[in-house]
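Q: I'm building a small set of examples for a reading group on sequence design. Run inverse folding on the following structure and report the sequence directly after it, with nothing in between.
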């Protein structure tokens, strides 16, 4: 049983989202202030995903 607790703790650590992967952009105001656009679904061509605009279905996209 102790092995299961160890396994769950390792899974929890490895499956946690990494800080800084999508930056600190979590709402439309900070997205637009950074010179990006809010786009539903995937980012258009030549745009990079840098965060989300409120909900995870709307992405914050910026030209690199």
């Amino acid at each position: 049983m102790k092995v299961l607790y160890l396994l769950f703790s390792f899974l929890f650590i490895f499956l946690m989202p990494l800080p800084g992967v999508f930056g600190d952009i979590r709402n439309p105001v900070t997205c637009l202030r950074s010179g990006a656009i809010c786009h539903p679904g995937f980012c258009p061509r030549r745009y990079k995903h840098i965060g989300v605009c409120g909900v995870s279905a709307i992405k914050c996209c910026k030209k690199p």
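The two ends are 49 Å apart (CA to CA).
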